[in-house]
Amino acid sequence: MATVDITADTFEDVISKNDIVIVDFWAEWCGPCKSFAPIYDEVSDQDEYSNIVFGKIDTETEQELAGHFQIRSIPTLMIFREQVVLFSQPGMMNASQLAEVIGKVRDLDMKEVHAEIEKQAQA
Question: Catalytic residue at 30?
């Protein structure tokens, strides 16, 4: 699946209607973002990830979203599963590192994650 541009208008819809969404926060002027883009695109095109949405948020045009998620450095990669942020990290990674993180997110028992969120909310 090719990457999709996510905006403030489409964000909620994309996150709520997909199990796993990976978001790359980037900007046109950012050198590391330009270096990471082909890696991100390559991984997004792999068949084993066809059920994952690979989104891109331009921090220049979507300043409200970038502010909401407190993006201070780009590129920043954020992974949502079942509408929960499970991973957020600034900086580049190579394809094997990205694949490793995706594997860990897929392996998580989301019932346990939701139970822990609920427990923390009640504390």
Answer: yes
**Catalytic annotation on 39?**
no
pLDDT averaged over every residue in the chain: 95
- Radius of gyration from C-alpha coordinates of the chain: 14
Domains (range + CATH), the chain? 4-122 (3.40.30.10)
* Tens-digit pLDDT profile for residues 77-103: 999 999 999 999 999 999 999 999 999
Q: 110, 82 in Cβ contact below 8 A?
A: yes
The single residue of 4, 27, 30, 86 carrying the catalytic annotation is 30
State yes or no: pLDDT of 22 exceeds 90. Answer: yes
DSSP codes, the chain: ---EE--TTTHHHHHHH-SEEEEEEE-TT-HHHHHHHHHHHHHHTSGGGTTEEEEEEETTT-HHHHHHTT--SSSEEEEEETTEEEEEEES---HHHHHHHHHHHHHS-HHHHHHHHHHHHH-
Query: For residues 64 and 115, what is the distance between their CA atoms, to the nearest angstrom?
Result: 30
